[in-house]
User: Fold these one by one.
Assistant:
Number 1:
Amino acid sequence: MASAASSRCPCVIRVLSCTFSDPVFPTQNGKVAIVTGGTEGIGYQTVKHLARLGMHVIIAGKSESEGQKAVRKIKEETLTGKVEFLYCDLASMKSIRQFVQQFRAKNCPLHVLVNNAGVMLVPERKTEDGFEEHFGLNYLGHFLLTNLLLDMLKQSGTHSNNARIITVSSATHYVGELHLNDLQSRCSYSPHGAYAQSKLALVLFTYRLQHLLTANGSHVTANVVDPGVVNTELYKHVFWVVKVVKWMTAWLCFKTPEEGASTTIYAAVSPEMEGAGGCYLYNEERTKSADIAYDEELQRRLWTESCKMVGISDETSRLH
């Protein structure tokens, strides 16, 4: 299925995105959302649009100053006070657990969780817990966060209005390989390989999660989105030559962060997605992910290993 990724010329994506019209979604008054990495780029635009629809949105991020700056700016742009920042470093299992405790203390429901934050092509380095950074932050951080918030999502979802989990992956997952015997890329580190593996893991995780939610009759759906090629700060670790080319062609070949956020917003609030889970969405349409992502045995094995790595029990004690 790698050809599906290679066939997506970013320049074509940009031109096509210009033809999109802003959809009109129903108001979301009374609903609560958490968006990781909501201080800039796609995450920021996601927070702004959800707040504009009336949602109470919590930005989960690791920079207090950037978080408060984003909150002030969104309040000014949307004229709503329903945005706040809570500290959460996805590269720290301890920080994630503390964030969940803080959120629980608010005694509010949770209708939408957007797993958006991530790093891309960073040099080889480890998280606080000793995980390779792409895998530890992009994948394991969101895996733990989602599992710790599952009970609140289940309590908030109803038969006619499911709670929703939206995870941001990438077309890079089409060329990703999951090395179950070396998830930390210790044998041979490649920034591109590690990033692609983390994005493939997010797709496998989403499909397995939806299977478990469905099996247990939970009113929660889990979907994964591909934002396309977006002009964001994620490219700060690429070679300088690539940065120059990006700077020269971004206006033509890249989506804006607002355009990149459109599919995430669609998955979070569109009536068309009510009750629909286990989908891979691109340009607000359901499409096929990499063939390997549908391997149920691989999904199961990754889930079990992930539970061990983050120190939680397997799904049987939590999803029943």
Number 2:
Amino acid sequence: MMSKQAFICSLGSLYLSLLFVFLLMDVYARPANNSSLKEKAVDSKDENGILPPDHLNGVKMEMDGHFNKEFHQEVFLGKEMEEFDEDSEPRRNRRKLMVIFSKVDINRDKKISAQEMQRWIMEKTEEHFQEAVEENKLHFRAVDPDGDGHVSWDEYKIKFLASKGFNEKEVAEKVKNNEELKIDEETQEVLDNLKDRWYQADNPPADLLLNEEEFLSFLHPEHSRGMLKFMVKEIVRDLDQDGDKKLTLSEFISLPVGTVENQQAQDIDDDWVKDRKKEFEEVIDANHDGIVTMEELEEYMDPMNEYNALNEAKQMIAVADENQNHHLELEEILKYSEYFTGSKLMDYARNVHEEF
């Protein structure tokens, strides 16, 4: 018969054995190449970064002609936009909003004028510009592996196709030997559009080599007046139905918005048309002649246009100016927080009283 001491020792050995087995199971359950997966994810992000984004922070319209739905939040919050999450603690968001209010209110009269809001919008837009410059440095290094400070169209094409799943070494070899690349029609169309954009970003003297500054214009046309013109031409080309290089209201609101399957979808489509019609008639069509020219659209698209910033400031104030004094008080901004931050703050009046 086993002694009590021997039985305890036996249990201890069994426990250690089971613990060892569980540790082994945990080790083998993890991906063996966990670190390489992370590196691959980072690389993938870098590769996506070499493509001109459709969405440009601080610009009112996307590259495809759609409105930037987050524009108001971007020019009011700047880089702090990500901090205002729907799931964030409301009291924390209120305090952040109060801090922003105090920064906009330069003369400390506890209300924000159109001029103060204009200055703030320009400052936040510049903030987005600087963020794009920093990101561009990383993306430029990704397409300039030899570090000579210039990237040729062929070098970029190789990186672009690699980001689309093509074998980079095979593509590079074919490009080097001027061999035909077997590319699907959709990818080829994108590549052709990118090549046009590449040529536009290549400042005189044209050498088909982009330096870091030119590459920034390629990815972010809002940084270059010439590229801004090119982006406007692309938008007009996509919307202009009669080929006169101008936009009528009917052309501007004719972008496909999806298949309407039910009343809710119909309401969304109706709101979309209403928003575009209002923007066309009240803002973009500067001389109100019912036609938007390339020049008018260019002025509208220019994020560093001070007149546009003042006009935007007045519109933002009008949205929440309940007492009609043409200024914004803190209570008004908190009440309309969803418009300014994308985050709705509940029981704003009671909480404002508590904060004060």
Number 3:
Amino acid sequence: MAESERRAGTSEEVTPPLQHNFMIPKKEINMVSDMAKWKRSQAYADYMGFILTLNEGVRGKKLTCEYKVSEPIEKLVALLNTLDRWIDETPPVDQPSRFGNKAFRTWYAKLDQEAEKLVATVIPKHLADAAPEVAVYLKESVGNSTRIDYGTGHEAAFAAFLCCLCKIGVLRVDDQMAIVFKVFNRYLEVMRKLQKTYRMEPAGSQGVWGLDDFQFLPFIWGSSQLIDHPNLEPRHFVDEKVVNENHKDFMFLECILFITEMKTGPFAEHSNQLWNISAVPSWSKVNQGLIRMYKAECLEKFPVIQHFKFGSLLPIQPVTS
């Protein structure tokens, strides 16, 4: 049966890949020399393809525009709402150090325990075998419970989680806008709440030389949203008034708003890279530059990728096609 025929029909009718052997994803990048394996892997090709497909899917579109919301999308939002509720149920504890509140470990332990069950609510019964594999990416996407930190590697795990759901046919081509605007955006809200509530440290941050302490993907997809905008240019995102008036429509501006809430002092000093980006003439140039920067600063950095896990859906094996 051809892949295209299998994918046709509603999500209920998708037959799982014949005799697919799901597995628990594991680390494969143990030393710097392993990075070459990653760059040649099917996982890298699929991950990057997924990011770029979504980048095209949201081009020129507002967060507030109309788009299709399927049942799996609704279920993913409900899953994220559960994580959000757990934050409310797990207040920070009194401790001497300001950063890295240990209550995060209590919150994380709950996710660790419930992740498979949560994922099982999103995928149809005949794909139940996929839940343990897919759940690993969900657990990896919220930060590290030992170090109480969060960074772009955790964000990548969430994108990988969504990519896996596409690979097993739970999410489909026409879900693209909802994946970014509804699911990923809700994920960002929950992560910001985690970062604020438990005062999480930035993981592997380059400080003032990095793009942002915590996220990267919403800058890529957010700049794509702004391509060909009739009057918002890159130079405008450092203008507080513009941000306040437009952040509900554009992910990029929502990120800027969060940075200005969290940091004090002149924007050019605390977010130098973003300040430089505001001088780029067009959003399409910003978008291309951010994709290049993402590959170089995140996907090609050993400290980030050493934590990435590989299974049957995102395999370490070299690209076949």
